[in-house]
Amino acid sequence: MGKVPCCDKEGLKKGPWTAEEDQKLIDYIQKHGHGRWRTLPKNAGLKRCGKSCRLRWTNYLRPDIKRGRFSFEEEETIIQLHCVLGNKWSAIAARLPGRTDNEIKNYWNTHIRKRLLRMGIDPVTHTPRLDLLELTSVLNSSLYNSSQLNLPSLLGIGPILNPNMLSLATALFSSQCRNTENITSQYLHQHQLDQNLVQNQLQSTQPAQLNTINSSSQANQLQCPVQEIQPCATSNIISTPFSSEPQFTHVKMEQLPPNLTNFSYQNSPTKLWQNNGEHPNDFSVSDYSLLKFDPVIDPQFENQILRSNNDESIPNFSFGTLMSTPSTSPTPLNSSSTTTYANCSTEDERDSYCSNILLYDMPNSLNASGVLHM
DNA sequence: AACAGTATCAACCGCACCAAT
DNA sequence: GATTGGTGCGGTTGATACTGT
User: Fold this and answer.
1) Domain with CATH 1.10.10.60 in chain A
2) CB-strand contact A29/C, under 7 Å
3) What Å value separates CA A227 and C1' C13?
4) Which is one GO molecular function term here (predicted)?
5) What is the pLDDT of residue A95?
6) Which residue pairs, CB below 8 angstroms and at least 24 apart, start in A114-118?
7) Helix, strand or coil for residue A80?
8) Closest residue to B11 (CA, C1′)
């Protein structure tokens, strides 16, 4: 037996609410309280579906609704919570007083999601967009081997992968090899070496050579033991990274701290796939070297990330934190510029700021979802 | 000024869950 | 255990505003 409609749709009004309807609803709820939404419209003299009344009240008329632009703190909180909770808008809204799930959902879809995409971060997984990496890698390696043709470069998709993010992902992955600290330090050393080599040789070196250059580094990555899994703070999170399923359905909300505005990177999906010992799409470090880029990542910043992920005494890294309070930016700290994400007043400034941290160009041949238009 | 394309967001829809019967 | 009503949730739609040509 199918569920009956919440109310008879005959003669019921749809569409935007008028001021008069709003006032009727407010008056009724002030007198009788809300609830019993099915019978409420009739009692209140409204020709509306009860569901519509509830939505109007909870999303718009409720007295504790905070309207207007999202603050930077709110935006950062949304990003961090979404990283943990996924599209659980009501759960996110519960931790943002005065904001509704609908408002947050809209803001995510129209602002944050696009910004993350522009930054080369997958808004679903909150990880660097390794799908693009894989695509570029496959195209480049196969085509180069067969024809000496660098198709991605020809297509203009070489620079789509932010080298900073790729480097960061590599570093983070490496840092999970907890019981092989020598490997990590070896990697650090190796990585610095590679950075220099890449810097010096990238423009003139053949891709095959670059593969060789990074092969030892890659080997270090791939031998990281799978079993070294650190339990997450929310230990009941079971995630299958890069799957199409919602990633955080196992999060029990009541077990999360009520004020989750500084959630640790320890619990991010990036961490989760690392903890699972899985490596999405089996990307290899050497693949990075095939990318055409001009390395600009600040080694201090990268090392700080590595330390923060290895050293329990250094608290937390998250993309949200990266965006709002970068400890190191491409602009030297001692420069006169004191711009941070948090004091960018406009959307453009936020974008510009993020772009400066995460230099990244989306070629026209890719649409917003990263689909290549041939 | 007019038009087209894009962005925004309030509102709707369908489904799922839960409690009461 | 099955049915029903109430409610909440996430995805989608469509009207409107904005922007570029």
Assistant:
1) 19-61
2) no
3) 47
4) DNA binding
5) 83
6) A114/A368, A115/A350, A115/A351, A115/A354, A116/A79, A117/A362, A117/A368, A117/A369, A117/A370, A118/A351, A118/A354, A118/A355, A118/A360, A118/A362
7) helix
8) A15
Residues 38-77 of A with CB under 7 A from strand B: 48-49, 51-52, 55-56, 59-60
Q: Rounded CA gap, A271 and A126, in Å?
A: 10
Which CATH class, in words, describes the domain spanning A19-61? mainly alpha
Q: Which of A89, A94, A6, A99 is nearest to A53 (CA)?
A: A6
Specify which residue's alpha carbon is closest to the C1' of nucleotide C14.
A15
Are the C-beta atoms of A288 and A170 separated by less than 8 Å? yes
Closest residue to C12 measured CA to C1′ = A106
Q: Which amino acid is at A26?
A: I
Task: Give, in degrees to the nearest 5, the angle at Cα A181 between A175 and A185.
Answer: 75
pLDDT of A65 reads 82
User: What average pLDDT does the segment A288-307 reach?
Assistant: 34
